[in-house]
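Students often ask why we bother encoding 3D structure as a string. The short answer is that it lets us treat folding as translation between two languages. Here is a chain of 537 residues written in the first language.
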Amino acid sequence: MSILIFGHKNPDTDSVVSAISLSYLKNSLGYKTTPCILGAINKESSFVLDYFQLETPKNIKDVKVQVQDLDFHKTQGISVDTSILSAYNLMDHEKIATLAIVNNEKEFLGIVSIKDIAVSLIAGDFRKLETSMENLLADLEGTLLSEGLKYFKGNVSVIDDYYKTIRGHLGEEDIIIVGDRYDIIEYAIACKVQLIVVTGNREVPEKFLKKALEQNISMISVPYDSLYTTRVIDQCNYISKIMRSNNIIRFSEEEYLDDVRETMSQSHYRNYPVINRDKKFLGFVSRKHILNPKKKQTILVDHNEYAQSAVGLEESEIIEIIDHHKLGDISTSMPISFRNNPVGSTATIIFSMFQEHGMDIPKPIAGALLSGILSDTLSFRSPTTTETDRRAAKILNQTLNYDLEKYAMKMFKAGTSLEGQNVEEIFYKDYKEFNLDFHIAGISQVFTLDIDEVFRQKKTFLTFIEETHKKNNHDITLLLVTDILKEGSYILYASNKPHLISTAFNISKEQGIFIPGVVSRKKQVIPKLLSAIEIMK
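And here it is in the second language, the structure alphabet:
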């Protein structure tokens, strides 16, 4: 199972490139990992991935335990034209009680159990046979004497009477079992029966074989007597004759373990078919498979709080966290690798890990890491910037040889364009929730070079913020509109405490006021809000 590496919800560039770069590093070290994102990437991240020709990570909605994570019995189904006897022999050899029936595309059609086969032997319609020549020769260990039809659907008769006694009773829908009664064989050929089964491996005169060929009638010889052949030939029927296809409880491989448990608790079956989204059969799951389920293994980058992470994170096995934010509320039952450094970007930490392992960084990964550092530090304008970030960027740029300011502005311009986005899309581009001393805060930050576009919709933004505030039952809902060139932010907000925002930033209560120097949500906004909450207690 591949280890999933992902950043926070509403992924920003640092989050995306950190997942990609760490996955590359881990895979180079022999691990099997997959970089992922929790939601659509923004324009800036898209620009970076296109610029360095990197694939967009897999978008996942949760990491809850699914059927595909379980160690269920993976097996192939049998073809719908397999014989009942072949199916039984397979069950006996594999020591299994249930088989799945599939079509040529491996799509699930139904199931057959040992009980179904047993019932068919007791209560089946022994006069009807629908099967193939291939099944008959295999199951009856027969020898082909005359090849006519290859597929049969008719009525089975065992004939030991004088041929005149059966006159008028044979026709083209009949299949007969006979010994060395050549008069019967000759009469059956004349009646154009579908198939003649000659028991006891008895020889059939050439003249009858020639007549059978002329009439396109199949004839086989089997080593068994008529009694045994009569008992077994019914088991040569296609398995579809006894297959159950209605009201079958089946599970998609993408179904969640909680739902599977509930369904199993309300039913009594031993095995349940598992299919994929294309309806192809994958195997069987039973109650024993859900007792100790395998969990998805996860590595978190650029966050360490449940509210910012994937749904169902508590059901996963977190094996590592790499972040540069304050400690959050995520806990684990076992010790893990937890790297939390006070730098301006998670990409900086990932870069240091490459150096620790003495690994060369290919140009696309170097470009991605550099972009993550420039993005999260606002091209070194943010107060979160450290000398470690500057040093990492300098070394990475030795591979790229870029004019960092020009590249950063090009990236910011691509990423800060608000064209074609509605208020909700803009608000949730980079939105995070925080628990600030028992006050729930939802904080969105938008970096833009086009402030006028936001303020043309100021009333709409304020209405949306107020509605979001009430819907989420937050104590604080805040939008930072950060002007990269002016190195400050405009603020729009809703708060249960009217004076909290003005106290935190030492400003008037006016909506949309500019706060010089405030560009970091982590290092400036969060500490100021915490201080104001403490003051107002």
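Translate back mentally: The chain has a mean pLDDT of 93. Keep this in mind for the problem set.
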